[in-house]
Write a structure and sequence with these properties.
- This protein is of the alpha/beta class.
- The protein has 2 domains: 291 residues, 3-Layer(bba) Sandwich (FAD/NAD(P)-binding domain); 211 residues, no CATH class.
- Strands 1, 2, 3, 4, 5, 6, 17 and 18 form an 8-stranded mixed sheet that branches. A 5-stranded parallel sheet has the order 7-16-8-9-12, covered by helices on one side. It has a 3-stranded antiparallel sheet with strand order 13-14-15, with no helix packed on it.
- Helix 10 runs antiparallel to helix 11 and helix 15 runs parallel beside helix 17.
- The longest helix has 22 residues.
- Bound molecules: ligand NA7.
- The site of ligand NA7 has 21 residues, from helix 5.
Length: 540
Amino acid sequence: MTEHPLKDPVAENTWDVIVVGAGFAGLYMLHRLKQLDLRVLVIEAGSDVGGTWYWNRYPGARCDVESLSYSYSFDESLQQEWRWPDRYAVQPDILRYAQFVARRFSLYPHIVFDTRIVEACYTEPDHAWRISTDAGVHYVAGVCIMATGCLSVPKSPDIHGIDRFRGRLLHTANWPREALDFSRDHVGVIGTGSSAVQSIPILAEQSARLTVFQRTPNFSIPAWNGPLSEEQDRRCKDRYPVLRNRARNTFSGDFREEGGMKLLPASPAEREKALQHRWEQGGFHYQYGFTDAGYDTRANEIAAEFVRNKIRRTVADPEVAERLCPRDHPFGTKRLCVDTGYYETYNRANVELVDLKRTPVEAVTARGIVTTGMEYDLDTLVLATGFDAMTGALVRMNVRGRNHERLRDRWQGGASTYLGLMVANFPNLFMINGPGSPSVLCNMMLALEQHVEWISDCIEFMGQAGHRVIEASPDAERAWTDHVNRAADRTLYPRADSWYVGANVPGKARVFMPYVKGFKAYSEICDSVVEKGYEGFVFA
Ligand code: NA7
């Protein structure tokens, strides 16, 4: 048998493939590459596997895709064996699942923990990636795969004086591992995105007093979460192969997805019935229920107003209810929140909502937050202020391609990729769920499985064909990025100042980063690229 051309004579710290990140993408990538008998090392900043589910330990952290869908599908016995207790899994259960998978497939010995990459540099003569870590260790690899996650660089708000705060300062995405006691605390939360919407109901129960500092209200739909019965679990597992296959033929990569309807042609009675039905299904079932709401403002407004009316009916104080009603962006164009008791929380006597649009924050002081109208003394300040999404981890890492070109410079005017998998001039550098792929608009588990399988098949093909280098062609990258942008422009998505367009990071170029045409359309394109001999890629 001939050796894979990536295989170098074994030198210290020389690997066939280095994978960055031991979240679900990195773990599965490692598993696949081990099967190809390549020498693989995974480098991970955290002290354990799990990625986003390792870091995001805030109270109430929960997946917004149902557990039976948000789990690996690549191994039948794994999916039969693992038992999810709830319809939507909580962070500790998802972390346990990641650890279980890592043990089951003997992945731990191949992972270096507590280590951050500070630089990854492609060197031309030997077609190698030279990777340096914050521990001062240098690695060399033929291929580098970034499994760095779409939401892995937490963002703190640029508020004057935040480092002067003398109380307990927490970020939802970097939550301490030990249990915290808030029972005597006045807790402040900045932000009302998914992390805040999930944590606020629990923090309200756990703290003496809770003040929520809201700049922009978001749409949130109840999860209707609950325990998964034995019968529900069995019914799904009996049909798993069929259901997983169904998921691959959907927009969202979720086998729970049901075909949607158009709101505009429907009669008022039909609309009301359908809206209520989808509301009762909960979460993303509501968003995907109405096909015209994604691109027609009139249809969108119908879906939006239905949610606003639910808020008005839930929140006892009409003024607070109006403050919670989103009006500055179309429904679903910012990441939808999926909650348990979020709006009800504002009926509690110990909870207050501060509208920062009316009374903006002036400063954070040693004691708390000063707005234009009030001063709030706080014991704990929780920043639920989001992430530098989709590109943050990659540009921070100082990735340099051919001729030392920096990825950060290349993406100065906005992220551009071929299929969200590779960037021209950065040979042998793959991204999992990179910008330009459906990623965050889909069930991330299926999205990452599709990318991991595509990449490992590609690496296997390179071995068989005797190729040592693969690279996206500049033309293919340009054409794909144009296609991604044009597809987004036909929807309402770009109208919101969301993290999908990088609007939450000052100075970040405004480009809609995920591919909006959904899992099925995207994976078919990836397959056809392979059928056409890896069209748009150049091998050497
Ligand atoms: P998000 O969805 O980006 O939410 C961040 C929130 O923080 C949002 O409400 C922001 O308001 C608010 N924010 C950010 N900076 C400030 C300042 N300076 N002042 C006041 N408010 C601020 O992040 P999440 O962590 O909740 O969720 C991210 C994803 O993780 C989520 O979509 C799921 O996929 C999982 P803004 O809207 O910018 O006015």
